[in-house]
Amino acid sequence: MKSPKLDISLVNKAKEGDTIAFRAIVETYKDPSLSLACSIMKNEQEAEDVLQEAFIKVYKSLSSFRADANFATWLFRIVVNTSNSALRKRRWKIEVKEECYQPDEMKISDQNFYVNKALLRMKKDESLTLRLHYLNELSIQEIQEVTGHGMSKIKMDLSRGRNNFKKELQKLLGNESYELL
To answer: How many Å apart are CA 20 and CA 17, to the nearest integer?
Structure first.
């Protein structure tokens, strides 16, 4: 999935208090943002809660958004930070739950289902970096802005993430995994 493009005039209208414009922003970014939150939280319900909190923060912080910046990068940074804060607040061990991205709930293809399932089984930073780079088509520099990680960590997460992604697909699909790659 490519990162959606947003008409900057929507941001300007939302800054002036136009709730319809802000609703359009939410509609544009809710799916890729939920995907990012789910990759961190590993639970769809918690990811939805985090996403709601993140969009409230976005609304309250719109006045600080600089028009020369990439809106998607700014928003994704808020989603990632909000997700990480929620994880820190959680006192129990994170369990990878299989309910994220069930094909009957999300009505996505089998291919997308297995890609998401493999990503959910991976380490948080690797999964997040792969989603940002391949699904949202962000550059390494943009990923650095979103995550706050150094360039070498991002490159390492991409490299390890690709290898671990292949292994997870292999576990899920056996020889059929090569059709997805």
So the answer is: 9
Alpha-carbon span 15 to 163, nearest angstrom: 43
Write down how long the chain is: 181
- What sign for the dihedral angle of Cα 63, 67, 68, 69? positive
Joined together, the tokens standing for residue 80 give 């990632």
| Structure tokens belonging to residue 6 | 């947003």
Question: By C-alpha distance, which of 30, 23, 32 is closest to 2?
Answer: 32
End-to-end Cα separation, the chain, in angstroms:
15
Identify whether the C-beta of residue 6 lies closer than 8 Å to the C-beta of residue 28. yes
Tell me the whole-structure pTM to 2 decimals.
0.68
Rounded CA gap, 69 and 173, in Å?
Answer: 41
Structure tokens at 157: 């997460």
**What single letter denotes the amino acid at residue 104?**
D
Residue 35 tokens read as 């995907």
| Six-digit token string for 50 | 């985090």
The span from the CA of 38 to the CA of 70, in Å, is 22
- Which tens digit of pLDDT belongs to each residue from 144-179? 999 999 999 999 999 999 999 989 988 888 766 555
